[in-house]
Specification:
The chain is an alpha+beta fold. It has five helices and four strands; from the N terminus they run ααααββββα. The chain has a single domain, classed as Nuclear Transport Factor 2, Chain: A. It has helices at residues 2-50, 54-59, 63-68, 71-85, 156-174, and strands at residues 88-100, 105-115, 119-129, 132-141. It has a four-stranded antiparallel beta sheet. Strand 1 and strand 2 (105-115) form a beta hairpin.
Length: 179
């Protein structure tokens, strides 16, 4: 009788362990599957930028970003970036990280890119919105001061920011006065 009870206990413990293993596998699949889908969206977004398909890339943006920047402003900014960096010949995935909070589920994806005029690190942050991963942030960073030089020897970021400021100023000047 004691042997039968011990065997039943072992089977219960084994059943609980198997159930926990499946539960962990399911949760892991859901979380890591999200990372994989976010990486796919990041790749599709960057491919659209490579092809200068800014309308498609704009569709991948988070609604909060689209509220702050029109499609034309977005395209103008990216054209400025492309003019400064040149086309990116190579991009290598480096890292992906999932962040969970009560407010949102986000994934950060990092690529090393070799562009015609500089080597940069591309940081993307994606947020799960409207049933899909949306680009929340895009950041180009130079890994070294030497690589931060553009074709005219100036700093790439200063060049991009100056071009953006010029566009904003000219856009503001072309708007009718509200007085």
């Amino acid at each position: 009788m004691v042997r039968i009870a011990a065997k039943r206990h072992r089977f219960r413990v084994l059943g609980v362990l198997i159930s926990l293993t499946f539960l962990v596998a399911i949760v892991r699949h859901i979380l890591l599957g999200g990372v994989s889908a976010a990486e796919d969206r990041a790749s599709a977004f960057l491919l659209a930028l490579d092809r200068a398909d800014y309308a498609l890339a704009y569709e991948y943006l988070d609604p909060e970003w689209r509220k702050l920047q029109s499609s034309d402003e977005f395209a103008g900014f990216l054209q400025s970036v492309r003019k400064t960096l040149g086309p990116c010949e190579e991009r290598i995935w480096q890292d992906s990280r999932l962040t969970l909070s009560e407010a949102a589920r986000e994934v950060s994806v990092v690529y090393a890119a070799k562009c015609e005029e500089a080597r940069v690190t591309v940081y993307l942050t994606l947020r799960r919105r409207e049933g899909a991963w949306r680009i929340r942030n895009l950041d180009y960073r130079s890994p070294s001061p030497r690589d931060a030089r553009g074709r005219d020897g100036g700093n790439l970021y200063e060049t991009i920011l100056e071009d953006l400021e010029t566009r904003v100023r000219s856009s503001a000047e072309s708007q009718p006065s509200r007085e």
